[in-house]
Fold this protein.
Amino acid sequence: MDFFPSFQPACISVSDLTRYLRMLLESDELLQEVWVEGEVSNLSRPASGHIYFTLKDSSCALRCVIWRSTAQRLSIRLQDGAALQVHGNISLYEASGQYQLYVDQIRSAGEGALYMEFLRLKARLESEGLFDPQRKRLIPAWPRKIGIVTSPSGAALQDMLNTLRRRFPIVEVYVAPTAVQGAEAPFGIVSALQALNQSIHPDVILVARGGGSIEDLWAFNDERVAYAIAASAAPVISGVGHETDFTIADFAADLRAPTPTAAAELATPDQEDLRLTLHDRVASLIRSYESSLDTQRWKLAETQGQLRMFSPLRQIRENRQRLDDLTRSAEQAMLYNLRLQKAHLSGLHTHLQAVNPLAILERGYALVTQLEDGKIVKSTNQVQEGSGLNVRLADGSFPVRVTAPPSETP
Amino acid sequence: MMSGTTPVEQLSYEVAFAELEELVAALESNQRPLEEAMALFERGQALAHHCARLLDQAELKVQVLSSARSVDADEEG
């Protein structure tokens, strides 16, 4: 920022100065988150819905503004003279050059005391380990029984039941009714928790209450309630007041939900999601099944191929061919053998011809045999005068008779 | 695996769905005899139908404990 150049003291506009001051105020952290206590005066509620007032103490005054959006959710009735603690940020209204507090929270001065008590109790229970992260139990994803500790007549119960009905109607709901504000409420809440744990054994318990002033929610800042929540057998989800409300019960619970409806949401899956997931699983199931069928089909085809390869039909065909081959070889062997025999025979025949004793007859020799007994006559001793003989020549034979006694060749 | 014996109609949503997921995983692992795969598939379909039917037919059952110490209920809007 260069409002005051050093070389020449310059004059700046009111607007420039005002914006500079506004920037200064808004850049101060302390002034952006501040609680201020005082008494309300000059309260004004124009038709715009915004609220203007002055917060005073014995010696000073502070202009305050509450925008309509904030004013609508205030749980405290503003009136002149009320002692209040207000929270907000300091800024500058440029048109009038006036700094003022833009309020976003209000509590009664009495609430301030309650708040101190709240802080003390929180610190004590914390030091006792009641809020330790290790103590927190997991909320089951799909509860079968849900216990609800709340007022039976409050809108919070209907909100939770509607939410459960919409998200997860399978669940069984057990409502342990109790007062949720007033002096009896802490004891009622503790009893309701115990009753649920003893007789129902729910999977999760919702401890809930709709929005209200800090005094209305005070039962949930009771140490008995905190101990009962920590001691609950079933995990506890707290849903007390609005998003901005924090109670001791919230710290003691296993899970804090900003509202009763949110508690019911945190306790259950949404059936829309379940249906989507279910649909998805069925698709996977079909896909896996088809793929497993495909694998089977493929294996079958493969095995069929193998089967064909080892089929006896194939062996038979093969054997038949071998038989043909063998038959052909046998025939050839036989033919060969036969030819061999023939050649042998013809050789023998020639040989036989060569040694045929009758062949000599061709050369003029004669074969003489006894007429009586056909014995070959080799010696003169075998014949006498008058013996009948047979003479065989090459081209025939004839009988003869010995007409003279045989004589020996000299 | 745990698949198989309890009649599907008797299973809670949670148990039925858990078994369905297991079946899908088992089928996806793929080394299954055909008969087993068929059985798994049929059971899976039955489980899925059962789950869907549970969601379709469910009506929130609300029971108010009378034994809980009921202090008069006040408050709240």
Remarks:
- Chain B touches chain A at residues 12-14, 17, 20-21, 23-24, 27-28, 30, 32, 34, 37-38, 40-41, 44-45, 48, 51-52, 54-55, 58-65, 67-77 (CB under 8 Å).
- The radius of gyration of chain B is 20 Å.
- Strands of chain B lie at 61-64.
